[in-house]
Amino acid sequence: MAASLSRLSHIAFHVPAGTGLVSDLVGKFRFHLFAERVTAGARQLALRKGAAVFLVNERLGEPPPAHTFPFDPTRPALAQQPPLGHSDKEFLYDVNPSHPVSTASNVCFEVQDVPSVSRRLQERGCPLAIPPTDVTDDGGSVTYCVVRSVVGNISHTLLDRSRYRGAFLPGFRAAGDVPEGPRDPAEATHFDHITYACPRGSTRAVLDWYQHCFGFQRFIVNRQEDAAEGYRIRGRGVGLQLTAMRYGKGSEPGLADDDCKFVLAESLLEPGKNQVDAFLEQHGGAGIQHVGLYTTDIVSTARALAQAGVRFVEPPPAYYSEAGKAEEIRAAGLDPRLLSQHGILLDGDGEGGGRGSSPHQRRYLMQIFTQPIFPEETFFLELIERRGAAGFGEGNIRALWKSVQAYLDKQE
């Protein structure tokens, strides 16, 4: 039996000290710093926005020699694993990935019984980077372990915090001020999805590993998706394969919920530059390319974040003038000029009626990507609002792809 996951806890970054990530998350993205742990050699800062929690790990002082790991597209996909990170006393609840660039490298889950989960994982051939470990302070105790994913430098911390009543986790102290006053206009409620950039040809092995170890199930990205090959988009300047999975739910898309989905992105063998391959090269292998933040009001959130200094990629110039696009936006009860002003994309999922149906009958989603937030241009955030649509629309996928590709081309 696969290991059972209860819920997603947080996503962890490992960055050099002084990168400005924390100040950007607080000052621009309006995350709230609520817990911290500082030692002589490292600083760990927990930030929250709704139920979305980021843990930023910074090594202070001189960093240890980084393992360089250039991506080689000629080598077998899953053979390109960076050296396994190691546990040290500086970083609790994680391994130190010793990665040469800033990276989002840990997706942490809560579980009910860490020792039992650990045994199941080991029985299924999933080695533990950190065995079950207890950490205690005045707020109680937490048990955790860490397993290494089959994808790049990603690891998964599994923890049981049912016996803990502190601000975050044992070893951390409360930090920051409790937000007061009116509702934050830049609200985000939870992580909608996490996208892995994967080497070409690796998706099936990744799906099999997550299903075997954690019981993940296939999630249909779009109803035109091929069950064997995933959702493939080809065209001028686009060559992309998307496949999705999630834990503990069925494989057919239904109404949107708070469960985070995992999307596997592979490039297709097409001429020209490709942003997935660019990620693999700059990051030094597979990893987390972007994280989608769910919002119930994407227009207000995008406006507030832009005013705070967040920079978004611009949609293709012709997007809003495409045949039927303005009509589609109006059919959703929205103003095309307003979405155009903020660079927000809208797409339906093919369900719930056509363009003549009422906004309440149609299912659609709205999305916008930020510019990369690391110097290496290997990670960005997405805002997404779903109105009934659980998957992803082809029009938005194409437009978002072209938006990011155009931005990357300008940087060269």
TrEMBL record:
One of its GO terms (molecular function) is 4-hydroxyphenylpyruvate dioxygenase activity. SUPFAM superfamilies: Glyoxalase/Bleomycin resistance protein/Dihydroxybiphenyl dioxygenase. The keyword Ubl conjugation does not apply. Keywords: Iron, Metal-binding, Repeat. It catalyses: 3-(4-hydroxyphenyl)pyruvate + O2 = homogentisate + CO2. InterPro entries: 4OHPhenylPyrv_dOase, 4OHPhenylPyrv_dOase_C, Glyas_Bleomycin-R_OHBP_Dase, Glyas_Fos-R_dOase_dom, VOC_core. The keyword Transmembrane helix does not apply. It comes from Platysternon megacephalum (big-headed turtle). Its cofactor is Fe cation. Belongs to the 4HPPD family. Catalyzes the conversion of 4-hydroxyphenylpyruvic acid to homogentisic acid, one of the steps in tyrosine catabolism. This is 4-hydroxyphenylpyruvate dioxygenase. One of its GO terms (biological process) is aromatic amino acid metabolic process. Residues 7-161, 190-349 form the VOC domain.
